[in-house]
Amino acid sequence: MGAVTRVVDTHHHVWDLSVRDQEWLTGPGLAPLRRTFTLDELRAQASGVAATVLVQTVTVAEETPEFLALAEDDPLVRGVVGWTDLTAPGVSDELVRLRELPGGERLVGIRHQVQGERDPAWLLRPDVARGLAAVAEAGLAYDLVVLPHQLPACVRAAELHPGLVLVLDHLGKPPIASGSIEPWGSAVRALAALPNTVCKLSGLVTEAGPGWSAAGLRPYSDTVLEAFGPGRLMYGSDWPVCLLAASYGEVLDVARALTEDLGPQERAQVFGGTADRVYGLSGRA
Q1: Which residue segments constitute the domains of the chain, with CATH numbers given?
Q2: Edge-to-edge, what's the strand order for the sheet holding 197-201?
Q3: Overall average pLDDT of the 208-237 stretch
Q4: Once rounded to an integer, what is the mean pLDDT over residues 24-33?
Q5: Where would you tag: which of 111, 198, 221, 283 has the fewest CB atoms within 10 A of its CB?
Q6: What pLDDT, in 10s, does the model give residues 122-180?
Q7: Collapsing DSSP states into helix, strand and coil, what is residue 143?
Q8: In this predicted model, what pLDDT tens digit does every residue of 3-12 receive, in sequence order?
């Protein structure tokens, strides 16, 4: 297996339960995550990782400024994917305000928990579309955290906003535990057919569950590798959520195993180059 000399983790979280509750942690099987997770703990587990992108966890306006301040004080965090209300009339002004805060230059993207929206076409609502246009105008990416049945709306949103880079988190959460490929496979290939889309090689072990294996993950990683290509694929740990199924080291090791057939330059794209280009991390040292 070829070595990867530089690793950028494009997807992790932190939270402090003394500052804010994480209501989503009340779900079944999530008890191991119901504690505070810090950047120092991540750093101890992510040995050899050169840079990271810190991603939003809750739809609370105060979280993004807090994350930007963390990034300002910690050179490990090169980028922040935050949250703001896309449907707000003043979303453009809010994006400007966030950029002016301490650490604001590290804001690289916006994300909303679309997976929790009942409307499968939520991304296509006129008020949401105005927000997506504002994100594009601000030169930011938009992270998609969606379920497979919401992928067709992602495809249409990518068509409607050709100037916006849409980043698919966790491969669109395919049903790995069941072993099914379709209809997820066709939907993700349709999204990849659009040039303004990118995919994160993240979240696989969590979707597979504690009994995961590299062989069981491979059909899904191979699908996105073929569809997006290494130049539009980037590694993410999804720490600490990944701890429900694997350690940080195991997640990184299996990502390396799933990309072992790539050449050195292609692997360098997956583990850093794509992130540098999409999120502009190289200019945020």
Answers
A1: 11-280 (3.20.20.140)
A2: 7-12, 49-55, 77-82, 107-112, 141-144, 166-168, 197-201, 233-235
A3: 97
A4: 90
A5: 283
A6: 999 999 999 999 999 999 999 999 999 999 999 999 999 999 999 999 999 999 999 99
A7: strand
A8: 667 999 999 9
Alpha helices in 138-183 (DSSP H): 151-160
Query: For residue 284, which of 80, 48, 47, 100 has the smallest C-alpha distance?
Result: 80
Q: Tokens for 178? A: 């069941």
Q: Which residues contact 127 (CB under 8 A, 6 or more apart)?
A: 86, 87
- Mean pLDDT, to the nearest integer, of 227-247? 98
Alpha-carbon gap, residue 81 to 202, rounded angstroms: 15
* Rg of the chain in Å (alpha carbons): 17
Q: What are the tens digits of pLDDT across the range 56-107?
A: 999 999 999 999 999 999 999 999 999 999 999 999 999 999 999 999 999 9
**And the tokens for 152?**
């067709």
Whether 168 contacts 198, CB under 8 Å: yes
Query: Pseudo-torsion of CA 28, 217, 180, 222, nearest 10°?
Result: 140
H/E/C letters for each residue in 49-106? EEEEEEECCCCCCCHHHHHHHHHHHCCCEEEEEECCCCCCCCHHHHHHHHHHCCCHHH
Residue type, 39: L
- Residue whose pair of structure tokens reads 């050195």 in the numeric block: 264
